[in-house]
């Protein structure tokens, strides 16, 4: 075993009460910080991650009806903040009078909300097309259909006091999970949505001709719009407001929670930095005090021929041992405490623990501990090198 390591360990064993007190002080600082970090990562970060992963929280809703032309949609598609956009009709036309499933048994669901979709829709794992639709999970459950099934959509109107209906055969391309869209809805293509609007608005369009191809309108009353990320929501909203387009986020609290997380991150970093600086100063002073108490011993070691590197290594090894013991004991207390917290309190979401420490966070704590040990030992190392060999002779 190298001589500096033997000397450092023997000194710690000789002054074990001071060493134990110092390790306990480190545990008193590090353990609460790790538990706070686990709670922040598990509770707050998990909630924000769920918000980020849920596309509905990135949606901006148009307030009122407008007149948005093709140039407007080209401008939106070119914006870096935009993740998805598709023109939409007036909300009064976004409702089917009924949807009928004929197999395996006849089921009728009335007043079904219609949602226009297109390629790249963040809620869908596939695409819609003319006659191909996606259903939300609640609607699919009510109808008793699965992907590959067939439906009949019924659209009604009243002209001169007479009720008229048009029908459209639909193929179910997929089902949107309830976690993505929890309300009954039918997702269909823009051509199908425009056909519904023409049938309801134009008396010249008959139940027999309503599905015939027609030129798109010069302007659309509304749109479906999603920001690329949750952080882009505010900027995109501001850009649209600047163009006179009134919008509001579907999830009013999403941006607020992001701000809360940023604030919590800054607060935690500030507290952790203060704790680290305070402990670093205490560590440096403690090691410097050890050197001062053993000045004659270090003077004798110099007289006996120990090299400067060997003598300076002694406080460095002591620093690493103390920090390592404190970190190890802290983890031995914190990890069971985190498990106890998770067992005692409900999770913030399915599969998400209330308290959680990631491996990279534990690795970061270990690296920070080593850096603290190395830098805190510098003062003591310099002091060791300045102790003259003749000092032991002067003090007999």
UniProtKB/TrEMBL annotation:
Transmembrane feature ranges: 16-39, 267-287, 316-341, 362-387
GO biological process: lipoprotein localization to outer membrane
Keyword Membrane (UniProt): yes
Assigned keywords, A-Z: Membrane, Transmembrane, Transmembrane helix
GO cellular component: plasma membrane protein complex
Protein name: Putative ABC transport system permease protein
Protein species of origin: Cereibacter azotoformans
